[in-house]
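Kindly inspect the following:
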Amino acid sequence: MKQHKRLLIIVCILLAILIVLAGALIAYLNDYSHADETALAALETDDKVTVKEMDYGWFFDGPSEDTGMIFYPGGKVDERAYAPLLHRMAAKGFDVCLVRMPLHLAILKPDKADDVLAQHSYEHWYIAGHSLGGVSAADYAADHGKKFECLLLLAAYPSRQLDESLVVLSIYGSNDKVLNQDKLKESQKYMPPDNLEYIIDGGNHAQFGNYGAQDGDGKADITAEQQQRETCDVFRLWIE
């Protein structure tokens, strides 16, 4: 009888520990950076870009007829936070598909680009991502290198070998304190030979999106709008 009670106590303790751990995990996964009002406003259609909500996320339909970009958001960031950047990109001449990730983590669905490719047909495809989303986008590009012409990495780096035919542009801010500089340097071994790196003077990690300050990040000397405009201008010049 005593042994039965002891076993019951142990089971109850283990269940209590599991409940606490599950609660902590749920709290962690639900703690993410939210899109601000500027970002939500950029989800509206205007005279240059039509914005549609899709089953995979959001489609920014600009003037392009033959070029599309797939964008992977940063980890634990509301995907809508990237609407101002992507709206601006679509207006500059190529359509953008912003993918919604489970629990706001691209690493949980790194092949989400499959859903986009199944619904759109473009002659030219680019893929891009910010932070951890950029790492996942690079991983996807490593497996589908012949499908994409360009990879745009925003404060991100590849973790696997990329095809030599893929053109890669890496952009990050001079005040970025989140991006691991050691891993960024190490990742050069995975890059194709003609990759290009561009540093935005005064930019930081978070301002590629509109979700507020990020823990551990440096303070930006420019606005988010300036950082995003420069990102679009550099990318546009680079692909022309």
